């Protein structure tokens, strides 16, 4: 298939074009004359900042080593070498922690699927040092969430209580809890869903039935099947605007594996992610020269996939970091509209309907005894209007979380 998809990159900075040129290079391949020009005229400080922002510096370090050219300043090679070394230590520490957690979960009879981190680095890159990760993400059944929390507390982890809830809305408005280990400096995110509402996704039992076993360490580590991993990575990357090229590099690596594209198409269509899968393929092809093959055509047939791919250029061109609030107002406004555009028609209806369900802010505006919390349903429009009026008169900005879709749910470089 033709890789010439309509994603405009003409206004990318020279450093971003160089970064993409290096990422699209296959092992052992040389650079074109145009790419050599980019290399010689680069602002290396800006280039280093880009590589760090996009979390692709381990791969860039390896590519620059392969080029063996005097046009790369020594301080650049030195900085990338240092970053690569630090990341390797971080990934080894995460691998050790993952092994310990897996052992404890097995002892407690808790089934867990590791979603990202070292297992994905080993699977996609063949080397844990070539992918960055700052935490461990795992998925457990909802009915084992409380026991998982107790287990982590017993291991010295402290829960980040950032979730406010009323009438158990946390079960569907959110999708993970965050735990930090103060002495180890490790963060663990425990998921009960792959994505927040209003996503439609496979249940835990279905995902578990298609699990794979990682050979990274001697103890069995379970993680997502290839098609389920594709669904998870595209939904996660799309929700964050593909604002880090590492997520697209993951997709390129996964596209080169032996995916069952017919099975994947059915899976994405069932859960309303077909257009998002197409967005990821368009971006990987245009930005990283990932090959498009005939079996991928069903994912690329939607015009919406092309439009969404173009929409994500807003994040990549501007080096936007959605994980460090507060965001500029124009970014917040754009991200809110972008997230709504990502949704299928069914998801949009569910999202709009969710405004009728009470929010924690309603309980803060008018505290009621727990047994009277059902009254927040008829009172919600009035409480929402009261907060809006208070804001207009100079009061605090007390917006509902879902009113600001662009509010980042994770403070990490996942």
From TrEMBL:
<feature type="region of interest" description="Disordered">
    <location>
        <begin position="393"/>
        <end position="414"/>
    </location>
</feature>
<dbReference type="InterPro" id="IPR039498">
    <property type="entry name" value="NTP_transf_5"/>
</dbReference>
<dbReference type="Pfam" id="PF14907">
    <property type="entry name" value="NTP_transf_5"/>
</dbReference>
<protein>
    <submittedName>
        <fullName>Renal dipeptidase</fullName>
    </submittedName>
</protein>
<feature type="compositionally biased region" description="Basic and acidic residues">
    <location>
        <begin position="394"/>
        <end position="414"/>
    </location>
</feature>
């Amino acid at each position: 298939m033709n890789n010439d998809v309509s994603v405009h990159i003409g206004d990318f900075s020279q450093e971003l074009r160089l970064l993409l040129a290096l990422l699209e290079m296959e092992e052992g391949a040389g650079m074109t004359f145009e790419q050599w020009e980019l290399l010689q005229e680069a602002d290396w400080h800006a280039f280093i900042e880009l590589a760090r922002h996009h979390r692709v510096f381990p791969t860039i370090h390896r590519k620059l080593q392969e080029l063996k050219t005097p046009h790369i300043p020594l301080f650049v090679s030195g900085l990338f070498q240092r970053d690569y070394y630090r990341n390797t230590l971080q990934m080894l520490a995460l691998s050790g922690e993952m092994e310990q957690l897996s052992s404890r979960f097995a002892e407690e009879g808790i089934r867990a699927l590791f979603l990202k981190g070292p297992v994905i680095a080993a699977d996609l890159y063949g080397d844990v040092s070539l992918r960055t990760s700052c935490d461990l993400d795992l998925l457990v059944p909802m009915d084992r969430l409380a026991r998982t929390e107790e287990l982590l507390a017993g291991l010295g982890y402290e829960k980040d209580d950032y979730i406010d809830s009323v009438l158990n809305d946390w079960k569907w408005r959110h999708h993970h809890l965050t735990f930090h280990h103060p002495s180890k400096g490790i963060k663990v995110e425990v998921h009960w869903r792959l994505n927040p509402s209003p996503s439609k996704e496979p249940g835990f039992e279905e995902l578990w039935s298609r699990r794979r076993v990682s050979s990274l360490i001697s103890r069995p580590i379970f993680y997502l099947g290839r098609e389920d991993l594709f669904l998870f990575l595209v939904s996660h990357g799309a929700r964050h605007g593909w604002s880090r090229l590492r997520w697209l590099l993951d997709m390129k690596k996964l596209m080169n594996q032996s995916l069952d594209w017919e099975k994947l198409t059915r899976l994405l269509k069932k859960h309303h992610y077909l257009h998002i899968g197409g967005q990821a393929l368009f971006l990987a092809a245009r930005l990283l020269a990932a090959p498009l093959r005939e079996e991928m055509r069903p994912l690329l047939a939607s015009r919406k996939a092309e439009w969404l791919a173009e929409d994500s250029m807003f994040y990549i061109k501007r080096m936007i970091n959605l994980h460090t609030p507060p965001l500029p107002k124009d970014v917040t406004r754009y991200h809110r509209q972008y997230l709504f555009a990502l949704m299928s028609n069914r998801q949009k209806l569910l999202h709009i309907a969710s405004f009728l369900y009470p929010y924690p802010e309603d309980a803060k505006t008018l505290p009621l005894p727990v047994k009277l919390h059902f009254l927040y349903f008829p009172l919600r429009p009035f409480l929402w209007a009261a907060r809006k009026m208070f804001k207009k008169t100079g009061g605090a900005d007390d917006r509902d979380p879902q009113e600001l879709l662009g509010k980042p749910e994770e403070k990490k470089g996942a």
